[in-house]
Amino acid sequence: MTIMQMVYWLVATLGNLSALYILKLEMNVISSLLLLFTLGYTAVGFYDIKFSPHTLNRLYPVVAYLRYFLESYRVEIQQYFIANDTEEKPFNREQRSLVYQRAKNARDTIAFGTQRDLMEENYLSLWHSLSPKEIKDDVKRVRFGGPDCTQPYDASYLNISAMSFGSLSANAIEAMNLGAKLAGCYHNTGEGGASPYHLKHGGDVVWQVGSGLFGCRDDEGNFNPDTFKAMATRPQIKMIEIKLSQGAKPGHGGVLPKAKITEEIAAIRHVPRDRDCVSPAVNPECTTPIALLNFVKRLRELSGGKPVGFKLCIGNPAEFLGICKAMLATGITPDFITVDGAEGGTGAAPVEFTNRLGMACLEGVYFVHNALIGVGLRDKIRIIASGKTASSFDLLSKIALGADTVNAARTMMMALGCIQSRHCNTNHCPTGIATQDPARSKALNVHDKSLRVKNFHHNTLKSFFELVGSMGLSDPTSLTPQMIKRRSPYGLLMSTGSLIEPLENEALIENRCDDAWSNWWESCSAEQFYVEDHYILKPAEFKVATH
């Protein structure tokens, strides 16, 4: 018998008898409440010991509920009272505070010095210049649109990443789009399609066509060119993005829990409401590299010549090189490639997929950048990086590793008021952002929150351009991987990417590359995505030492 079981029997016997005796001596509020407490304790404890399905309740009657209560607030307790400013995941207190401060136009400086361990292994930093420069307005936009594009688009360096209506509430989508309009950046629709809330306020939109083909599918779920053309030719749609995979759950289709599927969402997506909306893991129009590029060409034609690209998380490097081979074989190139990092966020995903699959954003961007150089196509294709961007340094590091622009999702949600409660998959978001509960979502003020999106965008870019200027550069395009310094395990600084030999122009085509690149290039095919992962990666330090 456990201690709490003994306590229960003491309360059930002596406790009840004592309470009855006290009530008999003097009937008042206190004696009545005491008897109600002992009787209630007895009833709850009897159920726990005799009928509860939980072992914990049987062994620790009544008090076991205290454990469940505290556990329900564990995340909040840890966030507010236990975790320090730099240790929490996925975004720590320092990062979240920076977003909130910039979104509110509040003071974003810190006092008394850094809380970071500058000697920590893998710590990233920059070397400044004694000759800082000012970034002119004429280099603060990036043009999207390759040689086959007739409607190019000039994008901001920082934009709103893919978040669907369904994953986010209508008010949150409206606030994002109005914020994009005020900030002068684009707003990616996410795979749920271009909803009326993405279009209501006139902000620039990138329409993502996911594997579920939401917004451009027929009754059988097949691609509908007429529906696509009707939406894609709208002036507000600036670019089209084909989703192959997502960093937070690569190899797995998007998931919208049925609790969040309203009649409106079901109508927009053309899906039933009685089950979770799970997109296919493979885009049905892009089953091979050549099929993908033919789909790119078809969407570009149907949209009237707007920039079309695709989004993926990098896994087996050889499979991306298969897409590069297909570009050379068909002569079709996308206008952009969005590289989603494995550290990216999602509303709902299997734990193993989120934790264990895919390359991180910086690794993926650096690989794609070099691969496109190696096949001589880098100047025709823009790279968008997506994955954990809270500060201007996060933005700068992605640009330096090879990206042309950057998308941010969760920090844009924080600009709206997200508190990282991590209830996105329950429909009980406490800030009305990641929910379809009308009572919760209507509490989000569209106009006020759109201003915060604009402020965060403006203040982060302002800091980004100041940071670039502090390095002695007058144009962000001058950033290179070696400018990002990484603390090595030996305590010394090294240039990021210095242990990975960068490719020269057309080096893959002319077979002027190391063993890893050569093996991946020889094993890939333009006819299929899958390539057997049999190449043994060697420690980069060993490879450099042998040279």
UniProtKB/TrEMBL annotation:
Gene Ontology molecular functions: glutamate synthase activity
Entry's family note: Belongs to the glutamate synthase family.
Stored InterPro entries: Aldolase_TIM, GltB, Glu_synthdom, YerD
Pfam hit, one: Glu_synthase
Name of this protein: Ferredoxin-dependent glutamate synthase
Transmembrane segments: 7-23, 29-49
Keyword Transmembrane among record annotations: yes
Location of the Glutamate synthase domain: 158-473
Keywords: Membrane, Transmembrane, Transmembrane helix
Signal peptide range: none
